[in-house]
Amino acid sequence: MELVSLLEQFTNQVTKLLVTEGAARFFERGQPLIVQMLEELKVPYHKYWDGLKWTGYPSLETLYFHYCLNLRKFDSSIGKMKVLTHLDIIRCTNLRTLPEEIGGLVNLKHLSIKKCSQMEKLPYSIGKLGSLSKLDISSSRITSLPNSIGNARHLSFLNLSGTPIVELPISIGELTQLEFLSLKYCRNLGELPESIGNLTLLQKLNLSRTNIVELPNSIKNLKQLKVMRIGFSPIRRLPASIEMLEKLEELYAKHCEQLEGELPIEIGKLLSLRILDISYTHISAVPMAINYLTRLQKLDLTHCDELQELPKLPSSLHCLHVHSASLRLVSNFSNLTNLVEMLLSNGFGQAPAQPSNPMQTFQLQWVGKLPKLEKLSWGLSYFSISLTELGCLPQLRELTLSGMDSFNSIVVGPQFSNLKNLSTLCLHSSPLREIQLNGLEHLRNLRVRECEFLERLLVISSSLRKLYKMEVLDCPKLLEIQFPNTMESLEELRVGYCDSLGGLCGLSKKLKVLRIYQCNGLRVAEGLEELELLGFLYLSRCGSLERLTDVSDSKIPNECTIEVWGCTKLSNYEGTYRGYKEMILVRTRMTFNEEDARADAEESVMGTNNYHSQNLPLTIGFLWSPEPDTELDST
């Protein structure tokens, strides 16, 4: 008990105490420690701590328990800690309940009981915590809140995320100071009480991944609500009363798969709205009233596949994502002069049937009139666009082109000579058979993906002096990739799922990372021995590759990491290039020894055969001499 005695000697000086697992045994429940000035006590990661009596801590303000597996209950004396303001209980997985005496913590402001997977209910006395401002019981097993919760009138933060709670008590409407309410992952919660509308100071409401089908009409009274999340829930419609949420800035309804039809026209009255995300829903129409949202900065309609047309949109937009397999009409968006990021697609090269009336589509020259555009992803099949138009976007940094159905081959580069900021180019899901890259002096990243018919990829100019990283994936008919001999900037190359690719040539000598996988037709990677800066080489499932490198004449660094898996003609290996060379040399010596042994054996056999061949005729002569007066006898 020396530690206890030591603490008692400094009872008027110790204000903070961290109890390690080794010291926990000094704090026994039957022997309370009196530390008059202790303000903060932390007990982290204790397997054996089971609590203690709390009569000796008159100044304690903060209690912290983390991962105390043996903690099953709190002593009732905890209610006597009148100055306690913070009680954090995290991952105490055997704690089932709190004593009713906890209601005596009249100054408690912060109560957190997170990830206590056996905690099934809160004491009724929770309502007596008149000073409580934050309550977090996320990821517990609590199925309901006591009605007394409404008496915690100063509560401003309530987190019930990840609990199996079935319903909220009507008294929750009495929490008139509440500003934050999260019910995320409360999958058993099917509705909200009408009293939710009494939370007139609520600013953030998270209903994501609940089982709520319909929002109550009283939600219109949440005049201070700024952020509402209802994503991944079965909500079927947005109520017309949503127009009353005059301060709503962010509305997230992503993956609400039951949400269908037209967005309510009343959404045009949310004049404070900055972000509207209704991606992955069955929304079929956006009302023209959306143009009234003069503060809207982000509109996400990704995979709204029943959406056929887009109305005029507010010029305040910074980010626009539209992806619909049914898209047939795109308005003139030349007014979107503040647009920084835009995605327009009707299927990434897998569009529906060509529109029967081409006049329903506008000309798309307006794309080149968006002066602030930095990121563009274009995948509108059957909507013609000129690459020259894209070359008029001075701020463009990232460009993704998908589809391009009207081309058989394409030369990308000369049209973009003015794009001094273009650093990333992605060619995706296109029926092109040949792609030539020429120019693009500032390009650093190149990605070519899912081009089913692509046969040739040619880098025909040395002007790609800054190309740093290149990926070619899922191009099953690709026969060749050609690089100019002067291309020295490429440091990372990734090639995968290109089964027809026969070889790689012209590899940059500055290559540091090379990944090749599922290229069953690849027979040789020319110039691999010259990669003196290579740091990582990965080869997998390249069944035709016969040789990695000539280890006797290779510049690959010994420290380079090598991984070879599933290449039929090569041995699996994981380690450094030094180890790989040693393995090859050992096998080569073994092969030579086997060949020498085989040659010696063959020579031995040949020697025996020669002996028999020299003596055999004489023996035969004696055996078959017919007459004594023959020529043989006379000699």
What does this structure look like?
The structure is a single chain. The chain has about 625 residues and is an alpha/beta fold. The protein has a domain at about 1-155: Ribonuclease Inhibitor (Leucine-rich repeat, LRR (right-handed beta-alpha superhelix), Alpha-Beta Horseshoe). Helix content is about 10%, strand content about 20%. The protein has a 25-stranded mixed sheet. The longest helix is centred in the C-terminal third of the chain and has 48 residues, at about 575-625. The radius of gyration is 38 Å and the shape is flat.
Q: Which descriptors would you attach to this protein?
A:
635 residues; alpha/beta; Leucine-rich repeat, LRR (right-handed beta-alpha superhelix); 25-stranded mixed beta sheet; 4 helices; 10% helix; 21% strand; flat; disordered C terminus
Q: Which of globular, elongated, flat, extended, rod-shaped describes the shape?
A: flat
- Estimated radius of gyration: 38 Å
Overall SS class: alpha/beta
N- and C-termini, Cα separation: 121 Å
Kindly report the average pLDDT value: 84
Strand content: 15-25%
Largest sheet data: 25 strands, mixed
Number of strands: 33
Q: Helical element count? A: 4
CATH superfamily of the domain at 1-155: Ribonuclease Inhibitor
CATH class group of the domain at 1-155: Alpha Beta
Within the CATH hierarchy, at the fold level, what is the topology of the domain at 1-155?
Answer: Leucine-rich repeat, LRR (right-handed beta-alpha superhelix)
Which residues form runs of ≥5 with pLDDT under 50?
A: 349-362, 611-635
Helix content: 10-25%
CATH-defined architecture of the domain at 1-155: Alpha-Beta Horseshoe
